[in-house]
Amino acid sequence: MHYANDQLYERFHVDLNHFLNVLNFHRSLIL
Fold first, then answer.
1. CA 8 and chain centroid, separation
2. Which residue, among 28, 9, 10, has the nearest Cα to 20 in the 3D structure?
3. 24/20 Cα distance (integer angstroms)
4. Contacts of 21 (CB under 8 A, 6+ apart)
5. 7-23 burial code (b ≥16 CB/10 A, e <16)
6. What is the pLDDT of residue 1?
7. What's the domain of life for this entry (predicted)?
8. Using CA atoms, how far apart are residues 12 and 6, in angstroms rounded to an integer?
9. For FRET with 22, which of 7, 12, 13, 28 sits at 20 to 30 Å CA-CA?
10. Distance CA 10, CA 12 (A)
11. Predicted TM-score of the model (pTM)
12. Phi, psi values for residue 9, rounded to 5°
């Protein structure tokens, strides 16, 4: 159970980092 939660957290963390990277990329394009 703990391992499954860690996997879910890792996936969420990666998605969050990807979202922030895309956001920063678009922000740099706009500015």
1. 12
2. 28
3. 6
4. none
5. eeeeeeeeeeeeeeeee
6. 58
7. Eukaryota
8. 10
9. 7
10. 5
11. 0.58
12. -65, -40
Here the tokens at position 13 are: 């963390």
The structure tokens 């939660």 sit at 5
- CA dist., res. 7 & res. 5, Å (int): 5
For residue range 1-31, list pLDDT tens digits in order: 567 788 888 999 999 999 999 999 999 998 7
The length of the chain, given as a count of residues = 31
Tokens of 10: 């890792």
CA 7/CA 3 separation, integer angstroms = 6
